[in-house]
Fold this sequence. Notes:
Elements: E1 9-20, E2 24-25, E3 31-32, E4 40-43, H1 45-60, H2 76-86, H3 96-99, H4 113-125, H5 127-132, E5 133-135, E6 144-146, E7 149-151, E8 154-159, E9 163-169, H6 175-180, E10 187-205, H7 207-213, H8 217-229, E11 241-252, H9 261-265, E12 269-272, E13 285-288, E14 299-303
Antiparallel strand pairs: 1-10, 1-11, 2-3, 4-8, 5-6, 7-10, 8-10, 9-10, 11-14, 12-13
Helix pairs in contact: 1-8
Amino acid sequence: MSTPLKNRYDFMLVFDVKDGNPNGDPDAGNLPRVDAETGEGLVTDVCLKRKVRNFVQLTKGADAGYDIFVKEKAILNKEIEKAYAELAIDLAKAPADAADGKKRNKEGQGQGSEVAQARDKMCETYFDIRTFGAVMSTGANAGQVRGPVQLTFARSVDPVVTLEHSITRMAVATEAEAEKQSGDNRTMGRKNTVPYGLYVAYGFVSPALAAQTGFSEEDLDVLWSALVNMFEHDHSAARGMMATQKLIVFKHDTALGNAPSHSLFDLVKITRKDEVSVPRKFADYNLSVPGETELPAGVNVEIK
């Protein structure tokens, strides 16, 4: 039995990277993403959602209702067709809006009850749909879902330096390469890293949208666990050392909220320590969270 979400939440995800590439930019030779004007590092919301999805798939994938829609090598239209099959709806006989997604109302959703049934089925089956939403009108039409959980890009507290390292492999791939090198058999490559960066992403949880997708209190607990632990199951040589340092959650007493999210985020202060000129670890920063007397009425804060 799932428990409906009744409270609004705003949260800050504070994580860091050391000697790694937290999110390569394919348009820049996979260099770490950087704001060209400020030099601050960036990590996209899509990158963070991917890590949440991977964590949930790893830890909850066998449980009913916790499958992942957007996963590696998935063919999304087939997953939508599968939902119709489980509902015993024949797409060949279904209305045009369900069968091929061409018929739309003003909001861009399908008009038939078949589409609504398919949309509900997809939300029930897939954690990432009822959490982040999805566009499911690319073939067999299951409509569109606006997710109750939204994330921003993460941005580093200080500017970051992007480094390129030459690396050597003591082997070649083909005999032709070996002959060209007269048996030296070396392959040169490049690796891109950030020496250190402390990043902050902001998130929002809407109970109104949660009611539409079925996102529950139990799902929220899974999300918190994923945000805290997702980097522990995502280690790779390319990403260096990444870790969630703090997850700061503001809980509102009401569904609509008791204070603007930006005013709550402004209460959290992250500053470099005076004696540190070049930060290389989380301990080089001071992080202060507002106490009970500093918070607006109806808002509580929790650090995970």
